[in-house]
Amino acid sequence: MMAKILFVVTGTSYWTLKDGTRHPTGYWAEEFAAPYDAFSKAGHEIVVATPGGTVPYVDVMSLRPSMAGSAEIAEQLETILRTAEELRRPIQLAAARLDDYDAVYYPGGHGPMEDLWRDADSGRLLIAALASGKPLAIVCHAPAAILATRRDGKSPFAGYRVTAFTNDEEDGVGLRAMAPWTAEDALVTLGVDFVKGEVWKPFTVVDRNLYTGQNPASAGPLAEKLLTVLD
């Protein structure tokens, strides 16, 4: 049975650091490409949505062989991104209706720390997706988008077991000291039950219909978990 999956992707190309400088970013290649490839090969339909319908920017760092794992993997990722037509014609996030989709997926990169964390349309979609029982998958920095689900200081995600890019991993990429805040700290403050695995290793958490992954290496495994539910 073919499912229709909504990919909610950051629309920004930078992340504003504590000192006001703009750190170039976007979405992380592997976090889009690995699930996109898995879902496409399984015959599912994908629609990309971004704030304002902006064509999303890939974080160029994520296509470096040192970051991707090897030159061969970097090349594979580039090929997937180049052939993903949906990336070039995203719909406006404001126009996305949950009823039209069987599952929702948020890839990370530092981009969501700039736009999705305070995007009201994304916040409404996340609240609706969580309540719907449909699979909702969010990876790496994208769980920062959960911050937009606060209403009067409370979020329906409070109490859910969630993972995301950790403070230790932010230290590892040398950005924690420069960050205005981190995904881990903000989620803990929001009241989720934050859990984490080993740095850089695949780590996924499932709590009811919420699927979260810790880092880029977790995107593929997260997609596999989703596929078993969709099939």
From TrEMBL:
GO terms for cellular component: cytoplasm. GO terms for molecular function: glyoxalase III activity; transferase activity. It holds the Pfam family DJ-1_PfpI. InterPro entries: Class_I_gatase-like, DJ-1/PfpI, Prot/Nucl_acid_deglycase. Keywords: Glutamine amidotransferase, Transferase. The keyword Ubl conjugation does not apply. Residues 30-227 form the DJ-1/PfpI domain. It comes from the Bacteria. GO terms for biological process: methylglyoxal catabolic process to D-lactate via S-lactoyl-glutathione. PANTHER family: DJ-1_PFPI DOMAIN-CONTAINING PROTEIN (PTHR48094:SF22), PROTEIN/NUCLEIC ACID DEGLYCASE DJ-1-RELATED (PTHR48094). This is Type 1 glutamine amidotransferase domain-containing protein. The lineage of its organism: Bacteria, Bacillati, Actinomycetota, Actinomycetes, Mycobacteriales.
